[in-house]
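Reminder to self: keep the SMILES exactly as supplied, no canonicalising. Ligand is NAP.
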Amino acid sequence: MNRNSIGFIGAGRITRIFLEGWQRAQKLPARIVVSDCHADALARLKARWPDVETTSTSTAVAGQDIVFLAVHPPVMAEVCTGIQGALGPDALVVSLAPKFTVAKLTELLGGFGRLARVIPNAPSLIGQGYNPVCFSPSLTASDRSNLKSLLEPLGEYPEVAEEKLEAYAVLTAMGPTYLWFQLQALREVAAGLGLTEAEIAPALNRMVCGGTRTLLESGLTPAEVMDLIPVKPLAEMETQVTELYRTRLPAIYQKIKP
Ligand SMILES: NC(=O)c1ccc[n+]([C@@H]2O[C@H](COP(=O)([O-])OP(=O)(O)OC[C@H]3O[C@@H](n4cnc5c(N)ncnc54)[C@H](OP(=O)(O)O)[C@@H]3O)[C@@H](O)[C@H]2O)c1
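Structure tokens returned for the bound complex:
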């Protein structure tokens, strides 16, 4: 169990994903304090984790050893200026948001530079996350290992260059949303064709993982991979979907880049 006290400013999806991931790995830190501007978000958290302390004031969270900033970029400046002065000298602040660089966060926090950034992804909920991390140079080896021990139960946490984080936000943080609805539609169709959930689950899992690995690792060109199967019932949507990827994703990247 992590001995540091943990704070989250923001009691939304990513905070619940972290808590659930830790819970399922039986690595829930002993002391967790969460703030949010919505009482119902805090109540929802409390219903699932009665031992988690909830508060409407972010300064109470800022007094913890490791403070996660789990809010969206539009409120990040207000949140940071609000906790200036409430952070302990040895605290570690970890932003989970895109757009705000370590340099910008340091400025908003009045010169506080003990910072890391993580772009997490939702499969962290079951310990299968891909959570790229970058550390500010001032952090010690012990700071880094404290954060790594929190990321460990959630999945992989490669250390990456800060300027790549927003690209990971498009690839891995938002990535599941491009695929989940299609996988669920396929799951429902397969059920309608008479397969049980016990039959569908391993088949779908292996099809997606094996398909991805064939694209990435077979040594065939992408065209050769895609030509391995001659019957493509959804072929006519490929042009439109590819176009959506090529236009929407660079557009969201432009919006979230620093
Ligand atoms: N969900 C993911 O899979 C994921 C992945 C990678 C990164 N992230 C990042 O994580 C951050 C949070 O995302 P999320 O998915 O958890 O969003 P979310 O579900 O909308 O949760 C954010 C929570 O913070 C609250 N909030 C807003 N202003 C606040 C303030 N001043 N003080 C305290 N709480 C405040 C929000 O209230 P309102 O509803 O009123 O705004 C909401 O309850 C974002 O920067 C996002 O990019 C999320």
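Points to follow up:
The chain is about 50% helix and 10% strand.
The beta strands are 6-9, 32-35, 53-55, 66-69, 92-95, 115-118, 129-130, 133-135, 155-156.
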